Amino acid sequence: MITAFLHLVRVFATGAYKAPRELNWVVGVVLLMVTLGFVFTGTILRWDQEAYEALQHNLEVTELLGSLGVWFSAGFTRSVPILTRLYIAHVSILPVALVLLLIVHFFLVKHHGISPRPSEADAGLAPGGRLPKEAQTGHYTAHLRKMFGYGLVLLALAGVLATVLPPAVGPVPDPDVEVTKPPFMFYWLYAFENWLGIKGILYAAVVFFSVLALVPALDRSPWRSLGRRRVMLVVGLVVLALLIALSLYVGFTPTAAHLEG
Question: Do 229 and 148 touch, CB atoms closer than 8 A?
Fold first, then answer.
């Protein structure tokens, strides 16, 4: 999650979402949503108190979605329980979605070439958003090798941490209490739930990811350096500050009861 977020910040800061890479930015936003989906379903599959409360949030948000969320509702089918369906999503549906999206993501990087630096783009050295072949200093294959290399290092590190410091499983679920908070990457959503109830999660998530997806449409200037994109810089810093402030707010306030009895 940390590396995915840092990658998003880097792409935003360098204006790498601009033409002709608008579609790849949207694909990246969907990849971020899928990654959060892994975190959410993985949390539920631990089946401790936090998992039980996360599942109840899932069911209540599903009710708000109506027919759009019917697959994740308890009444979708009696033969496959909701917990089993979330397990299927975690080990089958989300991995397939991740792989397919990564294929599209990498293909678009290959198709459009490595994004030029803001200074190169603003100086007119990259017509159409792409450096001439003779001016390119980085190549797709080298870029791909680095990504896979870093990925293997992160996988090894995660394996070591999972072995040496395995994540704790909490107490057996008690349906009569609500005492946990979500994983830290969902804290900002939890803040809206504090203020608006369960519907705050849905509204805040829809607005946030919709705005993220619309960034290329909102910033149509030809400039890529942050000095020439001051409005987007301010907007980005405000959003980042809000995410941090909301997360700190949730981290330092007591757990509130939101679920219906």
Answer: no
Q: How far is residue 121's CA from residue 114's CA, in Å, rounded to a whole number?
A: 12
Reading the chain (261 residues) residue by residue, the pLDDT tens digits are: 888 999 999 999 999 999 999 999 999 999 999 999 999 999 999 999 999 999 999 899 988 988 888 888 777 888 889 999 999 999 999 999 999 999 999 999 999 988 899 999 999 989 988 888 877 777 788 888 998 999 999 999 999 999 999 888 899 999 988 899 999 999 999 999 999 999 999 999 999 999 999 999 999 999 999 999 999 999 999 999 999 999 999 999 998 777 765
- Closest of 154, 121, 155 to residue 135, by C-alpha: 121
Cα 195–Cα 89–Cα 8 angle in degrees, nearest 5: 60
pTM above 0.90, yes or no: yes
The one-character DSSP state at 166 is: P
Using an 8 Å Cβ cutoff, are 42 and 169 in contact? Answer: no
Whether 93 and 87 have beta carbons less than 8 Å apart is answered as no
Of 261, 260, 256, which Cα lies nearest the Cα of 192? 256
Q: Among 200, 203, 187, 202, which residue's Cα sits nearest to residue 258?
A: 200
Give the span between the Cα atoms of 10 and 162, in whole angstroms: 28
Q: How long is the chain?
A: 261
Other residues' Cβ atoms within 10 Å of the Cβ of residue 137: 9
Give the Cα-Cα-Cα angle 86, 92, 96 (nearest 5 degrees). Answer: 130
Provide the 10 A C-beta neighbour count for residue 225. Answer: 16
In the numeric block, the tokens 């977020």 are attached to 5
End-to-end CA distance of the chain, in Å?
Answer: 32
